[in-house]
Amino acid sequence: LSHGLPAVSTEFLGAGYLVREHDVGTLVTTPKETGEIAAALDALPRGGTVEADALATRARTAADFMTPEDYLRRLESLYSELSIRSR
Fold this sequence. Notes:
Blueprint: E1 7-10, H1 16-22, E2 25-28, H2 34-43, H3 50-63, H4 68-85
Parallel strand pairs: 1-2
Helix pairs in contact: 1-3
């Protein structure tokens, strides 16, 4: 996001809410659904268009809401929660 690139991600990752709240890509149900991921990638606007430029601006803005350190903390928290659930 900080490079102005859209995200195709899942709810499993810690930045999913940024994708949703800032409209900077697509969330797919699971990383195992490769067809869904491919369709999401195909739906992204082509580079050099007004839509792509607007998306890049929104992506950079969304990145300001989560530093890499914040993201890693959220990811560690998720792994910890999953580890506790699996016991």
